Amino acid sequence: MDSHWVRMVLLIACILPALVECRVRHYKFHVVSKQTNRLCSSKSIVTINGKFPGPTLYAREDDTVLVKVINQVNHNVTIHWHGVRQLRTGWADGPAYVTQCPIQPGQTYLYNFTLTGQRGTLLYHAHVNWLRSTLHGALVILPKRGVPYPFPKPDDELVVVLGEWWKSDTEAIINEALKSGLAPNVSDAHTINGLPGAVTNCSTQDVYNLPVESGKTYLLRIINAALNEELFFKIAGHKLTVVEVDATYVKPFKIETILIAPGQTTNVLLNADQKFGKYLVAASPFMDAPIAVDNLTATATLHYTGTLAATPTILTTPPPKNSTQIANNFISSLRGLNSKKYPVNVPLTVDHSLFFTVGLGISPCPSCKAANGSRVVAAINNVTFIMPTIALLQAHYFNIKGVFTTDFPANPPHLFNYSGPGPANLNTETGTKVYRVPFNATVQVVLQDTGIIAPENHPVHLHGFNFFVVGRGVGNFNPKIDPKNFNLVDPVERNTIGVPAGGWTAFRFRADNPGVWFMHCHLEVHTTWGLKMAFLVDNGKGPKQSVIPPPKDLPKC
C-alpha cells in the first residue's frame, strides 16, 4: 500500500469516530528568515512562520499529524519530531541523510505521522547543520478526550522553551570551527521562550513574563532546545513537582532545581501559593568537566496577577555550573510511574548486549593550522560517523549498495581505562556503519564516557524508540557487578539520556519499529564532530511490521 492510500485510510478512519477516535491535524510551516534583535544587536535567523521559538504544535494521543513544510530560505532544511516514535513512518522522522534528503530551497515536503500511544511534551527542530539553534518549537500531545492526567488536574498550562543565542550566524561559527579544527565559540546568552532576560550590557533587552494567578496550579511544559548546553531550571520561592519527562509519566516528586539536557522535556506542576509579587525564573548551565560554556544565566519573571510593575523581583541564586550533586539529586529521583494504566514494560531479557564508548578524539588535518595540523573529532566505539550523500533509509529500502555497512562494532576495538586520560593513540577511524537488529529483538546499550581530551556529559538521543534507563554510575562500567544493581522494576523511560562525565549509563529497548534510526549526542558540536551512529531494524512479518513505502514527494538528494 503506497503512502497516498495510507493517508486515505487514515482519513476515512478518522471520519468514522464510532470506529476509531482520532483526528487528522493539518499544519503549514513556512521556513523563513526573520531579522531579530537580541542583546542590543540584530541578525537574520531561520524560523518557522517568522516566530522564535516556533509555533507550538498541538495534537492528541493517536492523532495523525500532517505538516507541510515550505522551504523559503537559502539553506537545505529538514524537521525532526523529537521523541515521536514514528512507527513504520521513518520517512517522516527528519534527520538529514538518515531518513530523508533535505528539503532544498524553494521545495516542499509533507511530514505525515501518527502519535500512536504517546501523550506529553515533545519538541520539533531542524535536523541539518546548526539550524535548530533558532528553528525549533514545542510539540504538545494531549491525552485522548476524557482521559485524565495521572496527577491533579492543573488549572492552566504554560510552555517554557529554553535555548541559546549567538550574536553571530551559527552556520558561520561551526564552519569556521571545522576549518580551524578547534571547538566553536560558545553562545552569547541562554534564552527562555526566546528572550535572554536582564543582561548587564543591554538595558533594553526584554524579559519574558510567566503570568500566574494566586491559588492556581500550573503545568509547566519545559523544553531544552539549546544546541550545546545542559541547563538547570528553578523558580525563586517555589518548589516544582515533576510529573513527566520526555512524554512519559513518572512517580511525582518535589524539587527546587531540575536538570534538563538538550532534546529533553520535563513537565512540572507549579502551585502559585506564595504572596503576590514577581519571582525570578532562572536557566543556567551545568558542566562538571573542564569544558568552556556560556556562563550567562537566562532569566524570566513569574508574575502574580495584580502585582505592580515596579515591585522588586524576588531573587534566587542559580546553582554553580559544576553542581554535580544537584544534577544527581534530580536524576536519581526519576522513576517510571508503573501504574496499571501506564506500566513500565522494561525488557527483562537481552538479545543484543552492546557496550559503546562515547567521547572525543583527534584526526589529522594538515590545513588546520590553528590546531597544529589536527582537528577535534568525536566517536562511538572509536568510529567517527561519516554522513552519506544518500539517505540511509532510502539506501536500505531500495537496496542501494555502497552507502553504508552493517559492521558497527558491538564493543570498543581497544580495552583501556575509559574514564582515564585515554590511550597513546587518540586517532579514530571513520565510516558510515550501522548496527543491524532483527525486528522485536531486545537491546541493551551501555554508554561509557571516555576521558580522551576531556570527560564530558553526553546527552544521547535515540530516534524511533523510547528506552528504559536501568542504571548509571561513575568510573568504568563493570559488567560483572553493575548489572546486579540495575533497576528492572520502575526505570524511567526516555528518548534522550545524559551519560555522566567520566561515567556510564545503561538503557534497554525493544526493536519493534522497523527502519533506520539515528542515535547521536544531542550536543550539536559533538554530532557535527561525528558522535553518531544508526540502528538498522529489519522488517518483521507482513506489512504491519514493515516500513511503509516512501511518499511521492520525498525530497531528492
TrEMBL record:
| Cofactor(s) needed by this chain | Cu cation
Which GO terms are recorded in the biological process aspect for this UniProt protein? lignin catabolic process
Primary location class: secreted
PROSITE patterns the record matches: MULTICOPPER_OXIDASE1, MULTICOPPER_OXIDASE2
Q: Which residues form the signal peptide?
A: 1-22
Q: What does this protein do, in the record's words?
A: Lignin degradation and detoxification of lignin-derived products.
Please give the name of this protein.
Laccase
Species annotation: Glycine max
Gene name for this UniProt entry: LOC100797234
